[in-house]
């Protein structure tokens, strides 16, 4: 809930999960045992930010962290989509999460535990963002570790430091990955795109990344950068990739193509040239493992 209760002028926190009622913070739906979320089974190999380095799709970490050295075909990821987020991104490509708190579907830790049947090899918390409901996710993650299921996260990194330590530890033990969405480096650009504070995200990324070498078989941390035209330009890419490389040059970094959505429908999708330039800059700055994700969205747009 940290960083998710900033005043919006409507008596509702940015996360959408907390209301100011008579100067008291109230959660209309959801608590540590009941999450505001939906979930589904995602067949492996799946379209994941880290799919080119994860055990599920590649077999990395076999036999300790993967069922097969060639990937886990025939198995499933339990995808847990949390409602609510600590940011208000103009380009949000999962903006439907905002509707969850107003008519919450509450899912217990027990229900998600039972959903992890013997063909589920990993669980991924995303959204929205799991950050405002981290405690619920950690309780589910504990059940996953008991079942031998990998624990992964997709987050902007806007969460409390003491919870971050637990998030990283869960992934470290199980062969999972913490995927940080680094939206920008410059405070003004980050603020314009997300209405959030970049220092929190960068600090938490640095803390998590410092544990990168504690596990050699599977990368513990992966960075993703959405190439928003006109905002995440060559300067932002240069600053972000230098920041990552200074911490740990072997952190896998994936560039993602933007497509018009939510409040940024007036921008074009990411161009091929933009993506290729991003990869070139990242490699020149010392990053070893660089990839373009949803390349099929790229085109000659600018």
From TrEMBL:
Keywords: 4Fe-4S, Iron, Iron-sulfur, Metal-binding, S-adenosyl-L-methionine
Xref: Pfam families: Radical_SAM (PF04055)
Cofactor(s) demanded: [4Fe-4S] cluster
Gene3D superfamilies the record matches: Aldolase class I
Molecular-function annotations in GO: 4 iron, 4 sulfur cluster binding; catalytic activity; metal ion binding
Cofactor note: Binds 1 [4Fe-4S] cluster. The cluster is coordinated with 3 cysteines and an exchangeable S-adenosyl-L-methionine.
Ligand binding ([4Fe-4S] cluster): 85, 89, 92
Listed InterPro entries: Aldolase_TIM, Organic_radical-activating, Pyrv-formate_lyase-activ_prd, rSAM, rSAM_sf
Domain Radical SAM core: 81-237
Residue ranges of coiled coil: none
Protein name: Radical SAM domain protein
């Amino acid at each position: 809930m940290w960083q998710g209760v900033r005043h919006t002028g409507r008596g509702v926190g940015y996360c959408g999960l907390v209301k100011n009622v008579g100067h008291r913070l109230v959660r209309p739906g959801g608590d540590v045992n009941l999450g505001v979320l939906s979930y589904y089974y995602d067949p492996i190999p799946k379209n994941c930010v880290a799919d080119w380095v994860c055990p599920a799709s590649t077999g990395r970490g076999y036999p300790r962290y993967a069922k097969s050295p060639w990937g886990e075909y025939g198995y499933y990821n339990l995808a847990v989509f949390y409602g609510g987020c600590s940011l208000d991104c103009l380009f949000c490509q999962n903006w439907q999460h905002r509707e969850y708190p107003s008519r919450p579907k509450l899912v217990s830790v027990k229900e998600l535990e039972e959903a992890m049947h013997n063909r589920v090899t990993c669980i991924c918390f995303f959204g929205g963002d799991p950050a405002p409901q981290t405690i619920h996710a950690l309780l589910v993650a504990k059940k996953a570790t008991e079942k031998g299921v990998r624990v992964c996260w997709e987050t902007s990194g806007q969460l409390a430091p003491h919870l971050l330590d637990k998030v990283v530890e869960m992934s470290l033990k199980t062969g999972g990955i913490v995927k940080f969405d680094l939206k920008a480096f410059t405070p003004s650009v980050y603020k314009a795109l997300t209405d959030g504070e970049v220092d929190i995200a960068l600090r938490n990324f640095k803390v998590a990344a410092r544990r990168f070498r504690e596990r050699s078989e599977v990368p513990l941390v992966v960075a993703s950068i959405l190439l928003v035209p006109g905002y995440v330009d060559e300067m932002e890419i240069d600053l972000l990739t230098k920041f990552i490389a200074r911490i740990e040059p072997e952190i896998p970094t994936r560039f993602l193509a933007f497509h018009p959505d939510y409040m940024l429908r007036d921008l074009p999708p990411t161009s091929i040239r933009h993506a290729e330039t991003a990869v070139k800059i990242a490699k020149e700055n010392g990053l070893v493992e660089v990839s373009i994700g949803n390349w099929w969205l790229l085109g000659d747009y600018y």
